[in-house]
From TrEMBL:
Keywords: Hydrolase
PANTHER family per record: HAD SUPERFAMILY HYDROLASE-LIKE, TYPE 3 (PTHR10000:SF8), PHOSPHOSERINE PHOSPHATASE (PTHR10000)
GO cellular component terms attached to this protein's record: cytosol
Family annotation (Pfam families): Hydrolase_3
Record protein name field: Hydroxymethylpyrimidine pyrophosphatase-like HAD family hydrolase
Signal peptide: none
Annotated transmembrane regions: none
GO molecular function: magnesium ion binding; phosphatase activity
The species this protein was found in: Promicromonospora sukumoe
InterPro entries per the UniProt record, alphabetical: HAD-like_sf (IPR036412), HAD_sf (IPR023214)
Length: 302
């Protein structure tokens, strides 16, 4: 999720840009640009060009905008749907009510900078769509932020953490405060989310054991093949509230085989159904759903 929630992307190393845009929430920038010119005649305008940079009314400093810049006429900035718009002018934060009257979402960055996105778009809304798609319970969400545009996201998360350099309003909104960027504050938060791994096990067995131990219900391993015999995807799913939800990825399972998964499960001390008495191989069952067909190996009694 990026651009204040306007864009949801899926990382894909095979894509030319390294990612695919899953959803782009755009809006007509003309009304809000026109209102901005009325209330702040000297305002500088920048319209995001996804995957490239920004089209601007005049040059911004290199560290103010990510990516490249191209200065164009104001009419061109108004002409095309935008994912995000940046407005820069002294004290433009005082104009937020006037700009919101055009129906857009206005997120202040500082007193002289506003970010504009489509109506109803913010980081919290976009993240909740991703959370629901992945089947992650709402009470298992964590967010780390350092800006005013992170307030909605921090209020949404079950556990919210402010960076040490964040403004007071951000730190007071969050459940806790970690170190600054210079102190790698986000690293300690991420480390706190990773369960202890049994170093005596192989990486695949350790990941399977950790997934089973941290689940709140019965667990099954689900695998999908790619174009060849090796596995393209391996995940732990858990039964919660009467339905199966995605619990955790098993990274070491990618590129292995179903037989390797069985061996690792036994190494982790996790039994699985074998079908007929005396059967040596596991009894995998077919699963269908989102994406290609796969196979499932229960690790817990239902």
């Amino acid at each position: 999720m990026c651009s204040n929630g306007a864009l949801t992307v899926h990382l894909d190393r095979s894509a030319p840009s390294g990612y695919d845009v899953v959803e782009a929430r755009t809006f007509d920038p003309a009304p809000v640009i026109g209102r901005a010119l009325d209330v702040a005649p000297g305002v500088r305008v920048a319209v995001e060009e996804v995957g490239w940079g920004w089209r601007t009314s005049s040059a911004f400093e290199p560290d103010e905008l990510n990516g490249q810049q191209k200065t164009v006429q104001m009419a061109e900035l108004k002409a095309w749907p935008a994912s995000r718009l940046a407005l820069h002018a002294p004290e433009i934060r005082r104009c937020m009510s006037d700009l919101r009257a055009t129906g857009v979402t206005v997120a202040p960055q500082r007193r002289d900078w506003l970010d504009i996105t489509a109506p109803g778009v913010n980081k919290a809304v976009a993240l909740d769509v991703v959370r629901a798609h992945l089947g992650i319970p709402a009470d298992r969400t964590v967010a780390v932020g350092d800006g005013i545009n992170d307030l909605d996201m921090l209020a949404w998360a079950a556990r919210s953490v402010a960076m040490g350099q964040a403004p007071e309003i951000v730190r007071s909104t969050a459940d806790q405060t970690t170190g600054s960027i210079e102190e790698a504050g986000a690293l300690s938060v991420l480390a706190s989310l990773v369960p202890a791994i049994d170093g005596a096990l192989s990486p695949l067995a350790a990941q399977i054991a950790t997934a089973e131990r941290t689940a709140r219900g019965p667990v099954a391993l689900r695998v999908w093949h790619g174009s060849g015999p090796d596995l393209a995807r391996c995940e732990a799913w858990a039964l919660q509230g009467g339905r199966w939800v995605r619990h955790a990825p098993i990274p070491s399972g990618v590129g292995t085989t179903m037989r390797a998964i069985e061996t690792a499960a036994l190494e982790a001390g996790l039994p699985y159904p074998r079908g007929d008495e005396g059967r040596r191989r596991a009894q995998w069952r077919s699963v269908t759903g989102d994406g290609p067909a796969g196979f499932e190996l229960p690790l817990s009694a239902l």
